[in-house]
Request: fold
Amino acid sequence: MDILLIYPADGLRFFQSMVPLGMLSVGTVVKEAGYQVKLLDLNHYRGNLKKDLAFWHPRVIGIGGTTPSRMKSYRIAALAKKILPDTTIVYAGVHATFTAPEVLAKIPAIDYIIMGEGELSFRELCDALIRTGSDPEKISGLAFRRGSEVVQNPSKRINDLSVLPIPDRDLLEGDYHLDMDFINGTAEPIITSRGCPAMCNFCSASRMFPGGVRYRPMDQVGKEIAYLLERRPFSGLKVFDSTFTAGRDHVLRFCETVKPFNLKWECEIRADTVDYELLTTMKDAGCYYVNMGLESSDDDRLKKIAKGISTDQALQVMADCRRLGILVKVFFTFGHPGQTFAQCKQDIRFIKKHRKSIDFYAVTPGLKVYPGTRLEKEAHDSGFLPPDFSWVTSRPSLKNLLLLETSNTFILFQKQLGALRLLQIVIILLFSGLYSSREFMWRMIKENIKNLSTNVFNWYKRLSTKVHK
Reply:
């Protein structure tokens, strides 16, 4: 075997499972280059990895993963290198991109790291290692050791996304399925662009894909939807662009493309990128549900976290969605640097006041710290991340009790708004009368029961199909 791509398990997913779209894109590129490639998603794999690694004996192993699954990625690399010492181990992804020097310095099993967009750089690396024997050290976006030094070549962004083929789902092994939120039916994931126009302090999307948003050609997107429908029937799409509505013309072209397929779909929006006219077109093309990050109802706080929107803009979008019958889920985060308990309670009052325009809301108590974000730098500079903090260890230093680890993700608690205060916020949300409105309570209960029943029904249907086979 030439290439084995391994995606580490990221938790128990009983009802649903997400296609690893990034790794699938990488696998498709090297497959079309003529390599024998296998994609192993450990969320679905039930074999003996030690035995299979020895049997397959790939020349190159590419390992992906996220910040929460990073320790699993490191353990997979160590296992692979122990069994196959001559095999080249490559690590890639968002987490790998922003932790490359530390990982290469402390994880000897990893030979190379691909930083940034990985498809073309990984193909070049495989060409050098397997076919040409050329020096890989000139490849863009490659990090590697040179003696005791870690070298990082500048990443090269893929300006023309049309050079990337439609992801080949035949590389997937397992029953991948997503259920539509709040309506019956199954969904397929799709990505139509790369990048994000925002510079939020807690997110690394704009640094991972710098230089603005780039869009896939819409004829290619249409071909992918048709290709997915040929493989198996489904009811809708989940558009996983960082900000789907970043470009108005792109959204209009997508609506024109997707409408003939008669599919329901959902997406991520920003309050400053949509208006009633655009939402009307989206609704007419099948959009039934949007996610919108507001984070705070305080405009000063929004400026400090570089959210780039205002509360008035969000309120207008919520009102437009309600008028059009588009479900809207609004995200709030408590625990921003400098945020007080009184300001958190102001957000709760905001939710209560506008509950008729908020179909669903999600609240995150405490900020998750990710590498490559401005928040990570602020946490280092302020001392919230201890001097001995390392992304290659599983536990933070006990010197800083304001840092909590859950599922290998670090949650930062501010001194003026510690864990107990944030717990109090959660209790207030439950008992403040937010659910006292019969209309609001019934809407939440009805939609969540429908969502749960849909998940159970689809799971039972898939299980029955397997049994009868």
Summary: The CA atoms of residues 73 and 329 lie 32 Å apart. The first helix runs from residue 21 to 32. The chain has 16 helices and 19 strands. The longest strand covers residues 287-295.
